Amino acid sequence: MLPPSMQNSTGNILNKIIQSGLQIIDVRSPSEYKKGHIPGSINIPLLNDAERVLVGTCYKTVGKEAATDLGFKLVGKKFHLMISKVRKINPTNAPFYVYCWRGGMRSSIFQWVMKTSGFEAEKISGGYKEYRNEVLLSFENPFKMVSITGKTGCGKTRMLVHIQKLGVGVVDLEKIANHRGSAFGGIGKNAQPSQEMFENNLSLALLQNKDLPYFFVENESRRIGKLKLPDPFYFQLIEAKVICIETPIQFRRKNILNEYGKFDNKLLEDATRNLIKRLGIERTNQAIDALNNNNKALWLDILLEYYDKSYLFGFEKNNQIINKNLYFDKITKKGAIQIIEIANELINA
Q1: Radius of gyration, CA atoms only, the chain
Q2: Residues with Cβ < 8 Å from 102, sequence gap 6 or more?
Q3: Distance from the CA of 157 to the CA of which of 49, 177, 189, 347 falls in 20 to 30 A?
Q4: pTM
Q5: Is the pLDDT of residue 10 over 50?
Q6: Is 344 helix (H, G, I), strand (E, B) or coil?
Q7: What is the pLDDT of residues 246-280, one digit of tens each?
């Protein structure tokens, strides 16, 4: 039997899915799914990309009836495969959600096939289109955040890991974006998600933390790699309470060299060249020469000169205020506890 949160599934789609804990099946084409989907959903397409184009063309040139007939002709021979896939991922015959673009023909067909085969499938009214509307609106909700900032290499990300292990909410923007946030942030990582999928995953992370007194984020610029933070969220981020981590320059240099020094010089050189407009031709060439001479210490010194100035400029540009500066010799659980205590004071002030 479907739980109450699943019946007549309209409004706040993602919240209902989280509450139900049920599987979600996306029956759109592979390219639609790749561009963006409800987080955690599994793609079992009714039509592949080429077939979807055929049906769409038929609809435009011949009409709805002909397109519907063609769709059934293409999909009908796949019914047994769909049933087999669902049985594989759902061996206990648990109820599940199904959606397409608007919650129309494709999800209705899939729902009928599943129910005929003994499954309890509930179609998401409004489909992915309605869900995307909810995602975009979700960034306008008020968020209670505490932003952790600090110069490059100070250990912000590691501190957030300690904080999260202590059971306090953290929304890891760089993890969601699959990028460390600098010109070198994509080295050693797989491709970033699409902008649409980034927004979907960010919306989910925010929803999962919305009932907490506050959550921590790392202070970020408007862009993380190729991805852009949604404006309503970004404007709240730069207005959030800010705790700044300060660590010794030797600590920072060691952190950065440990993280990036292991990569091939060609990758580092290409990323360095991307900074030519900011570093200038002379300093860029000096940094690349240092890499070619395997002098990564000098290469890093040149980059840090730029990144430290850029860090300060970013705060001035956004008129951000640092509410508390904390100095640490190293990043530890003890430091995370201290940050949480200060965050509680800032939020409750």
Answers
A1: 25
A2: 126, 127, 128, 129, 130
A3: 347
A4: 0.90
A5: no
A6: helix
A7: 999 999 999 999 999 889 889 999 999 999 988 89
The residues that bridge with 242 in the sheet, in sequence order, are: 147
Buried b (16+ CB within 10 A) or exposed e, 290-307: bbeeeebeebbebbbebb
Specify whether 100 is catalytic. yes
Phi then psi for residue 146, to 5 deg, are -120, 125
Q: How far apart are CA 291 and CA 298, in angstroms?
A: 8
CB 66 within 8 A of CB 58: yes
Give one DSSP letter per residue of 90-124, joined into a string. -TT---EEEE-SSSSHHHHHHHHHHHHTT--EEE-
Q: Locate the DSSP E strands across 277-338.
A: 324-327
CA separation for the pair 213, 207 (Å, rounded) = 13
Residue of 58, 100, 154, 244 marked catalytic: 100
Q: Say if residues 232 and 143 touch (Cβ distance below 8 Å).
A: no
Side-chain-side CA neighbours of 292 within 13 Å: the count stands at 7
d(CA 268, CA 280): 17
